[in-house]
Amino acid sequence: MNNIQFANPSFFLLFALLPIALLWYFLRLKKKNADLKFSSLNWINPHNKSIKVLMRHTPFILEIICLSAIIFTLARPQSSLSYQNVVTEGIDIMIAFDISGSMLAEDLKPNRIEASKEVAIDFIKERPQDRIGLVVYSGESFTQCPLTTDHSVVINLFKDVKNGMIEDGTAIGLGLATAVNRLRESDAKSRVIILLTDGSNTAGSIPPLTAAEIAREFGVRVYTIGVGTNGKAPFPVTDAFGRSRYEMVDVKIDEKTLTDIAKTTGGKYFRATNNRKLAAIYEEIDQLEKSKIEVTEYRRKKEEFLPFALIASISLLLAIVLKTTVFKSIT
């Protein structure tokens, strides 16, 4: 960022000379006019003054401009270019995202999966210094995006996530284990998994608590989020004739298991019953997992007095030329 500063601002006190110069000029002008005597002024038409007479103060104005420019030159204006060298203690974050069929329930708007994607993408945008990756799971799990600092890639791949990409089911343990595997060789100071689901473990060969033990062994902290309202939620279904309708289905989140996963790894369990609470959960995780940033600021200064010196020189030169030529007979 460029800022203009002055190395010798005390020279601005010289602006106090300008009123004195103006006073001296007009007193001198008045005295000079008083010495002019005419037997009659009838021949002078006050409305017919020549341009030369009207412009007779121009040399003095140029001298004032010259003096002002000299003061600015003596004050030494400088532009400073500052920039920062930022060093971070990076955090590696894997998001384990449930895309099972129940995530199509519409107790969150427009549905659980789309609402969860939107909030997660906003979270990613607020973490520019961290490496972030994405694992999706249903009946199976796979890495949608490995750890990267190119968040535009993560966000674009996140937008492509939808139900039906893999076999249906809810393999919480397998999804968590896949995310841990992506973090186990990370040398980041802090390694975190955000695991989001709306149900209980119904598939996969790895129990959730076993995956939690593995995460703890690798020093990975897990924040778990249960998504779904209390009671029943509207779920879209298609009948045999291809007609769409809604059924109210029970919301069954295994909160005990999710709480145990978080407790085992030193994380925390959250429950999101609506869009607002889901956004608040990600905001809280954002505050809990802040990178430490060390900032070193550098400044580079450049002298900017040359334009003022040129203005002073040109103004003085013009004043001298005008006084010795055009206005010589009336100054």
Map the helices and strands.
Blueprint: E1 2-6, H1 17-34, H2 51-54, H3 58-74, E2 77-89, E3 91-98, H4 112-125, E4 131-137, E5 141-148, H5 151-159, H6 172-183, E6 190-197, H7 208-217, E7 220-227, E8 232-238, E9 244-250, H8 255-265, E10 268-272, H9 275-288, E11 292-303, H10 306-324
Parallel strand pairs: 3-4, 3-6, 6-7, 7-10
Antiparallel strand pairs: 1-2, 2-11, 4-5, 8-9
Helix pairs in contact: 3-10, 4-5, 4-9, 6-7, 7-8
Molecular structure report:
Helices cover 39% and strands 27% of the residues. A 6-stranded mixed β-sheet has the order 5-4-3-6-7-10, sandwiched between helices. Strands 1-2-11 form a 3-stranded antiparallel β-sheet. Strands 8-9 form a two-stranded antiparallel sheet. By secondary structure, the protein is an alpha/beta fold. The protein is built from 10 helices and 11 strands. The chain crosses the membrane at residues 6-27, 58-75, 305-322. This is VWA domain-containing protein. It comes from Acidiluteibacter ferrifornacis.
Tell me roughly what share of residues is in helical segments. 25-40%
Q: CATH superfamily of the largest domain, called what? A: von Willebrand factor, type A domain
Number of strands: 11
Average of per-residue pLDDT values: 87
What is the number of domains? 2
CATH class of the largest domain: Alpha Beta
Could you say which overall geometry the principal axes of the C-alpha atoms support? elongated
Instruction: Look up the CATH topology of the largest domain.
Output: Rossmann fold
Note the run of SSEs as H and E.
EHHHEEHEEHHEHEEEHEHEH
Distance between the termini: 48 Å
Q: What integer value in Å does the Rg equal?
A: 38 Å
SSE class: alpha/beta
The main sheet orders its strands as 5-4-3-6-7-10
As residue ranges, the low-confidence spans are: none
- Main sheet record: 6 strands, mixed
Number of helices: 10
CATH arch. level architecture of the largest domain = 3-Layer(aba) Sandwich
How much of the polypeptide forms β-strand, as a percent range?
25-35%
